[in-house]
Amino acid sequence: MRDQQPDRPFNVLFLCTGNSARSILAEAILNKLGKGKFIAYSAGSQPKGAVHPEALALLGRLGYATEGYRSKSWDEFAAAGAPHLDFVFTVCDNAANEVCPIWPGQPMTAHWGIPDPAAVEGPAAAQAFRDAYQTLHRRIELFANLPVRSLDRMALKKRLDEIGKSSGAMA
Q1: What is the pTM of this model?
Q2: What backbone torsions phi and psi does residue 89 show, to the nearest 5 degrees?
């Protein structure tokens, strides 16, 4: 992003269909790991209207503040007065295949799809949320440590795509 370095933290939007689990987890993780360098947001193409209780419970158990999270439409980020987005990441396959709004400023985009933990029911649900969290945490950790300001757009795009293919396993 050498050619257009903002003199502010980079704004990152995580997209999912329902904006109730994966994108909320990603928003929380980046706001913690990238504090001062990034400001994360999340939204959905068809928001559920509520954050999944297991997502909030997991974040709470891991020491994240859980107040203020809400399921919201991606339209909020395409409207006048919305934050200028530098990066937009889809974290579910459905959102990656949908026609997204036109984001002002042509942010860098990448697909970081992971399975939907909210689709898992019963005793396996908590593990599905932990797995989603671990994969997102690893990818976001890799992203937050990139030398974003010194990479050109092509090199940065390549790195973002590579991160989206990485697993949650710690290196």
Answers
A1: 0.91
A2: -120, 130
Residues with Cβ within 8 Å of 59's Cβ and at least 6 positions away in sequence, in order, are 24, 25, 28, 66
Q: Report the alpha-carbon distance of residue 144 to residue 100 in Å, rounded.
A: 24
Q: Which structural domains are found in the chain, ordered by start?
A: 9-159 (3.40.50.2300)
Instruction: Measure the N-to-C terminal CA separation of the chain; round to a whole number of Å.
Output: 26
- Closest by CA to 156, choosing from 84, 94, 86, is 86
Q: Residue 21: which of 60, 48, 61 has the closest Cα?
A: 48
Which 3 state secondary structure label does DSSP give 127?
helix
Alpha-carbon dihedral 110, 90, 131, 160, rounded to 10 degrees: 10
Catalytic residue numbers?
A: 16, 92, 100
Tell me the pLDDT of the chain (171 aa) as tens digits: 544 556 789 999 999 989 999 999 999 999 999 999 999 999 998 999 999 999 999 999 999 999 999 999 999 998 888 899 999 999 987 655 656 676 777 899 999 999 999 999 999 999 999 999 999 999 999 999 999 999 999 999 999 999 999 876 544
